Amino acid sequence: MNFQPDKTEEIGLDITPLIDVVFLLLIFFMVSTTFERESEVNITLPEASKEITQPKPDAINIAIDAQSHIYINDRELLNTQLSTIKQGIYDALGNLEDAPVIISADAQTPHQVVIKVMDAARQLNLVRITFATRIFDEEDQ
């Protein structure tokens, strides 16, 4: 009789293939990831590829030039304060209840002025706001 315990081999886990797979995944994600810096995004506004539509007579046309002068239905406002813009839109609104607002802003207009106009229209419960753009011509590129 043999009373000696059986010699069993130690069970081991070979993690070399696991390390290889993780390393290959790491290389794949490093190569396939692109890093873009948002500060380098070049934006040219405003352009659109839609056809030109004529403004409707029951709409409020607001034009903003590059010097931030605001014109409501071809009448210039004295300043760009929110209360002045609201009063100008209210006067142009007349008896129309839910007139669409068409904003034609120069490409060089600061966004803050456009936001003020949109905020004034929203405070007067005018929510149908569109932006006028020029036709995008592929030859211009």
Describe this structure in words.
The protein is of the alpha/beta class and 141 residues long. The protein has a domain at 47-140: Nucleotidyltransferase, domain 5. The protein has three helices and seven strands. The chain has helices spanning 16-32, 82-93, 111-123; strands at residues 47-48, 60-64, 70-72, 75-76, 101-105, 129-131, 134-135. It has a five-stranded mixed beta sheet, with helices on one face. The longest helix is centred in the N-terminal third of the chain and has 17 residues, at 16-32. The mean pLDDT is 79.
Question: Descriptors for this entry?
Answer:
141 residues; alpha/beta; Nucleotidyltransferase, domain 5; five-stranded mixed β-sheet; two-stranded parallel ribbon; 3 helices; 7 strands; rod-shaped
Strand count, sense and closure of the main sheet? Answer: 5 strands, mixed
Radius of gyration: 32 Å
| E-strand count | 7
CATH architecture term of the domain at 47-140: 2-Layer Sandwich
Mean pLDDT: 79
Major β-sheet strand ordering: 4-3-2-5-6
Q: What is the CATH class of the domain at 47-140? A: Alpha Beta
Task: Specify the overall morphology.
Answer: rod-shaped
Report, as a whole number of angstroms, the end-to-end distance. Answer: 95 Å
Helix content: 25-40%
**What is the SS-derived class?**
alpha/beta
Beta strand % = 15-25%
Number of helices, counting only DSSP H or I runs of 4 residues or more: 3
Order of helices and strands: HEEEEHEHEE
Low-confidence stretches: none
CATH topology name of the domain at 47-140: Nucleotidyltransferase, domain 5
